[in-house]
């Protein structure tokens, strides 16, 4: 088992190195792209461009440029924005991480619980009215765009019904740090949580239902029934546990992608200054250091999520321990 974990950890390191190289080459070595022009500003003189290239090491070979950039990102941490002069990139990204983690973490709790409830009930009542109703609701949830649902939620809670007893507790759009005001943190995020989780509850519920129905046809399930084990225990202790493999895989990948910036639309709609919104603003101004930092950050969480899923599989499935 230790060999399998070490092998997967080495793979993760190599993948992160490859991603950092590719991201650097795309943003700083693409033919026709001149980062020094972004730094110097429009209509800069040739002398100014030469000085900027020298100051930022852009006149040196690409491997040296890459090493200097990674050093300024992860060692000295003094890389500054090309657009907002004086703004350090790493503190900006680390300051946005708690916002994104708070948003995605709370939504993940809701969609995991909701997906389990929908999937188990629909699988246990296959072919009945309850099953069809849950699948219709799940399909509606999957089909609703997050930005539209968020705007409707804002319209109701911030404008139309804000002065009623139902939504008078909803604070203005924005983020309140957990350490500063836990209750204010919860109130600011509860509507975004439900908005982001709606899509995934329907998706996970449908996937779990299909996996559960397929698993209940297996031979070991028929053997358990033949031994006289109750239907509820067969469903929850045998069918559900085996069906969670796909569920766990999806959760790991989706959680990593959302923490890495996939919750962009939700953050923009609700005015949350998370990593997704930070990346969106950097893309609008072509702030290359900020984009590079957020891309590497996002890649790290996606790769880490894959690694965690692999680790979970190593513990629950002995076949995954074979590294050959």
Can you tell me about this structure?
This protein has 324 residues and is an all-alpha fold. 75% of the residues lie in helices and 0% in strands. It has 13 helices and no strands. It has helices at 2-28, 35-40, 46-55, 62-74, 89-124, 129-143, 146-160, 182-215, 219-226, 231-262, 264-269, 275-285, 288-316. It is globular and about 85 Å long. 30% of the residues are buried.
What are the defining features of this structure?
mainly alpha, 0% strand, 324 residues
In terms of structural class, how would the helical and strand content be classed?
mainly alpha
Our estimate of the beta-strand percent is under 5%
Number of helices: 13
Q: Largest sheet, if any?
A: none
The strand count comes to 0
| Chain-averaged pLDDT | 81
Backbone CA Rg: 24 Å
Shape: globular
Listing every helix as H and every strand as E from the N terminus to the C terminus, the arrangement reads HHHHHHHHHHHHH
Q: What is the helical fraction, as a range of percent? A: over 70%
Low-confidence stretches are none
The rounded distance between the terminal residues' Cα atoms is 13 Å
